Amino acid sequence: MFGACPRAERLCIYFLKQPGGLLPAAKYIRSMAIHELYEHFRRHPQVCTDSRRLQPGDIFFALKGPSFNGNHFAAQALQRGAAYAVLDEETGIRDHRILQVDDALTCLQQLALHHRRQFVIPVLAITGSNGKTTTKELIHAVLSTRYRTHTTRGNLNNHIGIPLTLLSMPVGTEVAVIEMGANHQREIASYCSFTEPTHGLITNCGKAHLEGFGGVEGVRKGKGELYDHLRSTGGMIFLCHDYDYLRDMSRGITRLITYGTADAEVAEQCLHSEPFLAVRLQGRTVETRLVGAYNLPNMLAAVAVGRHFQVPEEDICRAIEAYEPSNSRSQLIHTAAGNDVILDAYNANPTSMRAAIENLARQQHPRKVVIIGGMMELGAESLAEHAGIVELLKASDCDQVVLVGGDFRQTAHPYLFLPNAETATQWLLDHPVRSSLVLVKGSRSIAMEKVLPSL
C-alpha cells in the first residue's frame, strides 16, 4: 500500500534560487523540509551518483570517498542535463539547479527514508556472512510469483547502494527485499535507521570481515544489529534454527518463523547435491540449479518466507527450480575443454571456502581440480585461516591444487602458488586442464573469474 507519511523531517539545504547568478549565501539560507526536496524527487525520480552515467532529468548527488569527490563533477552533471545537483561543497557554479547541503550522503539517506515511509508494506532486510545474495534472489523469485516485489539489484547493499535501492522503489510495490552488507559494527544499525525493516533474516555469522568486526563475536554483534532493530520495533524474523548462536541472538523476539534441517517450522533434508541441490518439499522433489548442500539453508529461507506470505506451494517450488545463480556465485559452467567449473568467485572467507571445498570432495568425479584465491579482511587471523584451508585441501580428494594471491603466499603448502589471477590464467593456458571438475573461488579483489576463459 502506498500512502502519505504524516512525519515531517527537516533537512538544512542552501537553495540557490536565482537562475542567472550565485547569490549571497547568508541572505538565501533557509531550512527546507525533506518533503519539499521529495517533491523535486517526485518530478525527477531518477537519482544518480556518477556523472558519467547520468541521464537527462536525473538528480545528481555529489558523494565523496577516499579517492573521489563528486562536487568536482557538478558542472559535468549539469551539462549532461541533471535536473538538480545536490552538493556539500561550495563550487562557485552559477546555476539555479544546485542544492547546497551540509552532507550529500546524509541527504541521500534521508531522502531514501522519506520515500520508504510512503509505503505501508513489508520490508524484509537480509544480512549475513555467506549466502545473503543467493537468499535474497531466491526470496525475490518466490515472492514475485504473487506480489509486486522490489529488491536490491546486484550488490547495491552498502551505505550508498541501499538508499539508491529504496529510491528506485516504484509506486505499487507490495513488498521489498533489501540486502545489507557490512564489514564493521554499527553499520547494520545505520542501515536500519533509514530502511526501517519490518522483517529480518540473518543467513549466518561466519568468519568474514574479521579485521573490521574484531573477530567472530564482533561479527555476531554487528549482524545482530538487525535483530536489535526488530526487537525494539516489534518486527518479525526468519530464523535458521540450525545455528545455536542465531537462536541465542534472537532472544526477546517473539514474532519469528524457524527453518532448518530439524526441529523447525520449515524443516527439510537435502536429498542429494550432485551436482545440484535437491530437496523434497511436501511430497514433491524440488531439483534446484544451486550447487552444494551449503545452499540448503538459503533455499529453506525462501520457502519459509514464501509460506509466511501465503505464496502457494506450487509457485514456491516452481520459482526455486527456475532460479539460476549468476554473477560468479555458485555457477556450474560446462566449458569447451570438457570441464565442469564451479565458479564461486564473487567473494570468499574461511567459512564459505571450507563449504565449497567440502562440497567438491563429496562430488563423484574422476578428476577434481581446485583453483582458489586468497581471502581478504581477516586481520590477525589471516595466516592461521589460510593455513587451515591448506590442511583441509591436504585431506581432500583433489588431483590438482593451484593457490592464487593473498596470504597463501606466506603459508607453507605443497601446491603451486601464483601471485594473481592474470598469472594463473596464463599458466592454465600453458598447462591446460581437461575433463575435470574445477572449483574456482576467491575474494573479490583477487577476481578469480578471470581464469574462466583458460578452462
Tell me what the structure shows:
The chain is an alpha/beta fold and 455 residues long. The protein folds into three domains: 10-111, MurE/MurF, N-terminal domain (Udp-n-acetylmuramoylalanyl-d-glutamate--2,6- Diaminopimelate Ligase, Chain: A, domain 1); 121-322, Mur-like, catalytic domain (UDP-N-acetylmuramoyl-L-alanine:D-glutamate ligase, 3-Layer(aba) Sandwich), CATH 3.40.1190; 331-454, Protein-Tyrosine Phosphatase, Chain A, CATH 3.90.190. Helix content is 33%, strand content 23%. The protein has 16 helices and 24 strands. The chain has helices at 25-28, 34-43, 74-79, 104-116, 132-143, 161-167, 187-195, 210-213, 216-223, 225-233, 244-249, 296-308, 313-322, 350-362, 382-395, 421-430; strands spanning 10-15, 29-33, 47-48, 59-61, 64-65, 68-69, 84-87, 98-101, 123-127, 149-151, 175-179, 199-202, 236-240, 256-260, 266-267, 270-273, 276-281, 284-291, 331-334, 340-344, 368-373, 400-404, 416-418, 437-441. It has a seven-stranded parallel beta sheet, with helices on both faces. Strand 16 and strand 17 (276-281) form a beta hairpin. Helix 5 packs across helix 13 (313-322). The longest helix is centred in the last third of the chain and has 14 residues, at 382-395. The protein is globular, with a radius of gyration of 24 Å. The model is unreliable at 1-31 (pLDDT under 50).
Order of strands across the main sheet: 10-11-9-12-13-14-15
* CATH architecture group name of the largest domain: 3-Layer(aba) Sandwich
What structural class results from the helix and strand content? alpha/beta
Give the overall shape.
globular
Task: Predict the CATH topology of the largest domain.
Answer: UDP-N-acetylmuramoyl-L-alanine:D-glutamate ligase
CATH homologous superfamily designation of the largest domain: Mur-like, catalytic domain
Over the alpha carbons, how many angstroms does the gyration radius reach? 24 Å
Largest sheet: 7 strands, parallel
Low-confidence stretches: 1-31
| Mean residue pLDDT | 91
Specify the helix fraction band.
Answer: 25-40%
CATH class of the largest domain reads Alpha Beta
Task: Report the β-strand fraction as a percent range.
Answer: 15-25%
